[in-house]
Amino acid sequence: MIFDQSEESEWVGPPVDSEMIRRAESVLQVRLPKSYVDLLSVQNGGVLHNRCFPTAFPTSWAPDHFCVDVIWGVGGENGIDVLSPGLVTEWGYPAIGVVLGLTPSAGHDTVMLDYSECGPLGEPSVAYVDEDRVPKRVADSFAAFRDGFVSCRTYGDEED
Hints:
By secondary structure, this protein is an alpha+beta fold.
């Protein structure tokens, strides 16, 4: 399981149904990736168990990775359909898609579903957006992104 199950979290949304997905897609004006929707059917967002994602480029976080604390679900007060649109405007993120969750910097960097090449009905890649606001592809799909997280201990951190 990608999510930390050790304690209750404000980031876990209500159980997902098809109407919630339809509403989120309507608000966001994109089709959400099947692998993301499948993940939400198991748990609707939450704190990640392994939080570090390796990169081939330096980030403001580290020379070879970045960290994601939370992947948001849909619906509820902490869903991507509620949070993402405002964050794109507030933080000046590029208009490439949907903010996926929360990083430790709380806005200075982020991770987004990137629809810039596939269009709103296609399968988005995942891009890391740093303080320079230039999106950098880190995964060809949400499934590859989901499966790419490693323990932060890999990088010498004391905990995940």
